[in-house]
Amino acid sequence: MVDKDDRLSRVFGALADPTRRDMVARLAAGDATVSELAAPYDVSMQAVSKHLKVLEEAGLVRRSRDAQRRPVHLDAEVFDLMTKWIERYRQQAEERYRRLDDVLARMQGKPIAAATADENERHEGAAG
Questions:
Q1: Whole-model pTM?
Q2: Nearest to residue 56, comparing CAs of 7, 99, 103, 90?
Q3: How confident is the model at residue 2 (pLDDT cuts 50, 70, 90)?
Q4: First-to-last CA distance in the chain?
Q5: In this model, does residue 6 exceed pLDDT 70?
Q6: How far is Cα 5 from Cα 81, in angstroms, rounded to an integer?
Q7: 109, 38 in Cβ contact below 8 A?
Q8: Which three-class secondary structure string do you get for 91-127?
Q9: How many CB atoms lie within 10 A of CB 72?
Q10: CB 112 within 8 A of CB 106
Q11: Where are the transmembrane segments (predicted)?
Q12: pLDDT in tens, 35-92
């Protein structure tokens, strides 16, 4: 489990920087060269390369060789790891809220099934 946690730490650490998050967002639209990635930033190519190295070490991007081009690719597999981690805690938080809703319903004298239905309607109304 330590390996996965270390990888998550590297991923979240890499994404803590707004420039790297922006690079990941741009790579989601398609591959790009280092020069193309560097274009919108007022930093040196060396700084962009350092950002890319952090993203590579976290497993978010990889570089390949395509004739004279060296495109940078987004590696979507790492997003599955992040999503599973986030989803686990989201489900736990939702379960705590459901239990709290049940306690509040009992305090208000509502049947729990009715309170749950009321809460579901509120969530659906907020989402829609």
A1: 0.67
A2: 7
A3: very low
A4: 38
A5: yes
A6: 10
A7: no
A8: HHHHHHHHHHHHHHHHHHCCCHHHHHHHHHHHHHHHH
A9: 20
A10: yes
A11: none
A12: 999 999 999 999 999 999 999 999 999 987 766 678 999 988 888 888 998 998 888 8
The first and second tokens of residue 62, run together, are 């990889």
Strand bridging mode 72-74 / 61-63: antiparallel
Instruction: Give the pLDDT band (50/70/90) at residue 5.
Output: low
pLDDT tens per residue, range 114-128: 555 555 565 555 554
Strand partners, 66: 69
For tokens 């930093």, the residue is: 43
What token pair was written down for 56?
């590579």
Cβ(34)–Cβ(48) below 8 Å: yes
Q: How far apart are CA 114 and CA 118, in angstroms?
A: 6
Angle between helices 2-15 and 77-108 (to 10 degrees): 90
Cα–Cα distance for residue pair 27/37, rounded to 1 Å: 9
> Do the Cβ atoms of 75 and 64 come closer than 8 Å?
no
Give yes or no for a contact between 23 and 55, defined as CB atoms under 8 angstroms apart.
Answer: yes
